[in-house]
TrEMBL record:
It comes from Trametes cubensis. Residues 256-364 form the Beta-glucuronidase C-terminal domain. InterPro entries: GH, GH79_Enzymes, GlcAase_C. It comes from the Eukaryota. This is Beta-glucuronidase C-terminal domain-containing protein. Pfam families: Glyco_hydro_79C.
């Protein structure tokens, strides 16, 4: 777990007491027996918004944030027994809500040269594609957009590069479709599951190591996105060696990704973001995907081709604006105990013939 310590109160004693309480809790027998461990402490959540919510003056700047953070983070790190970024517990830096403050700016201002800064192992930023804090009407189709997914993530490319240049990991420490607990008609729909697949895998190709999706009881973010996690985890695999690359797909609605393990192609995923809605009429459109392999791309490509087949699992969705009745590889997880119900369906895929993918559907092919 990553646990937050209050910076907004600007009270060192309060922050130190919080840190001691956090560390003490994780040292307790019951927590240790549970297997839950403390990985990082984050000092200050979305500090770039403090000037807007009364926690700092309205003219507060990033130049003031850095020494402010150091003055609190130093005693917190000491109280928690954190001395560097190689220990079992480290600090998580930044955690900014937007681009008001950036990792590049705080690096240039010397935050990593400070004593607590030397304990930062991860840089976190937050990202939502919209906000429902004051209500609003957000079209689901705008989220099921290949171009919009990329536009919402590429703003971080310079920050990612600067973070990696410092030898640190870069994550989205808080993200999801729409801020302020989601919006009905988007965050709770089946279409959001396809958005989450493309969004997460696109983030990975940009060098974002982890994405933490904001969730909570009663929030608009809802169960369909669990199916996105099922496909993503299967796509990534369990070896911890997979490398993910985006495939060039000449279709404005279809995204594709490949997973390699030890330089061998093992899986590909395709997401058709064309929104098939309850209001849609006529025949449901589909695209045909031809699987064309560059010779020498993997050591086993000839064996793949001559064998002539692979297996596929699909996320089947009736309509993008549905809030239930999805299946993953033929199985439903909408059960009382969340265990899958139904027969597992693994499709045979002929490599020479390719595969069809309907609007509002995703498929994972394993070689």
């Amino acid at each position: 777990m990553t646990w937050g310590v209050n910076l907004g109160a600007d009270n060192v004693t309060n922050a130190v007491n919080m840190a001691k309480a956090i560390v003490g809790a994780f040292r307790s027998w019951s927590v240790q027996a549970s297997g839950v461990v403390l990985e990082r402490i984050e000092i200050g959540n979305e500090a770039d918004l403090y000037k807007n919510n009364g926690l700092r003056p309205s003219n507060w700047t990033v130049e003031e944030y850095v020494p402010d953070w150091i003055s609190v983070a130093g005693p917190v790190a000491e109280a928690a027994g954190i001395s560097g970024r190689d220990g079992p517990v480290t600090l998580q830096g930044a955690a900014f809500a937007g681009q008001g403050f950036t990792p590049r700016e705080i690096f240039d201002l010397g935050i990593l040269d400070s004593a607590p800064g030397k304990a930062i192992s991860v840089i976190s930023q937050h990202r939502y594609s919209a906000a429902f804090c004051n209500g609003g009407d957000f079209p689901l189709i705008s989220f099921m957009s290949k171009a919009n997914v990329r536009g919402n993530l590429t703003v971080f490319e310079a920050d990612i590069a600067a973070t990696q240049a410092k030898g640190l990991l870069y994550i989205l420490g808080e993200t999801n479709s729409i801020a302020c607990h989601g919006a009905p008609g988007v965050s709770n729909t089946a279409g959001a599951a396809l958005w989450a697949i493309d969004y997460t895998l696109q983030a990975a190709t940009l060098g974002i190591k982890e994405t933490y999706f904001h969730e909570g009881v009663g929030y608009k973010y809802n169960f369909p996105s669990y199916y996105a996690g099922l496909l993503i985890n299967t796509f990534i695999g369990s070896t911890k060696t997979s490398q993910i690359v985006e495939l060039s797909v000449d279709d404005s609605n279809v995204s594709g990704y490949a997973a390699f393990e030890q330089d061998k192609l093992v899986r590909v995923a395709f997401i058709n973001l064309n929104a098939w809605l309850l209001s849609s009429t006529g025949d449901r459109p589909s695209v045909h995907i031809d699987l064309d392999f560059a010779q020498g791309a993997t050591a086993d490509i000839d064996a793949f081709w001559h064998k002539g087949s692979a297996t596929a699992r699909r996320i089947i969705i009736d309509h993008a604006d549905d809030t239930a009745n999805l299946t993953w590889a033929g199985q439903s997880y909408e059960t009382p105990d969340a265990h899958p119900a139904g027969r597992l369906v693994l499709e045979h895929v002929s490599l020479s013939e390719g595969i069809d993918l309907r609007a509002t559907e995703a498929v994972l092919i394993s070689f």
